[in-house]
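*** Backbone structure tokens ***
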Amino acid sequence: MRTRFQQGLDELRQKLLKMGGLAEQAVDRACQAYLDRDLTRCQMVLEGETQINISERQIDELAFDLLAMQQPMAVDLRFILAVTKINADLERVGDQAVNIAERVMDMVSLPAVDLPVDIGRMSAAVSAMVRRSLESFIEAKAELAQAVLEMDNVVDRMRDEAFITLVKTMNERPETTRQALDALLVARNLERVADHATNIAEDVIFWVRGADVRHNAPQEGNGQEQPAQRAASETH
């Protein structure tokens, strides 16, 4: 029974990594679609949402089966709980990618205008957060997850800067209002993706260290390698 349980944990990890890859790909495609005004990439994002939703259901079902199979030890229980929460955040990352793609589709139907906002820089920062949060899960390293938390403030500042400059543009150039609103919504969606990446990082810290760092809660533990990290290191 314990062997079957361990195999189930391994399968759960692999399914979540696949889910993470799909979500990361969706964000990258949506951002590139914005930069290139590419409707083909938009369509790929919309079509990919179905697979992300299917993966979310499969992961939840497997996680619940593992919980029902036996009473997991503390570290395994934290792992399963973290996976279910990360799974939900990855699904929402996919939703935000769809929202960006829909804004791009609206923008492409309008005349192209120059807007004083660097969406490319913001999208690169957000993509890095998603990628590093997944890397922290793969390697079971709370230090990588902590770095993601620190990046969130940078993206928040970018979002604020985009809001200020785009509102000013709409006031000074009313004919660009619709395009500026689309860009503003893209920036807001990217900021939400960053929030989900932050949630994932917090869940990795919870799994590895047994520390709840949500809402700036004080960390428990001394930062030393914990059983979850050692187990993951032995696996790779």
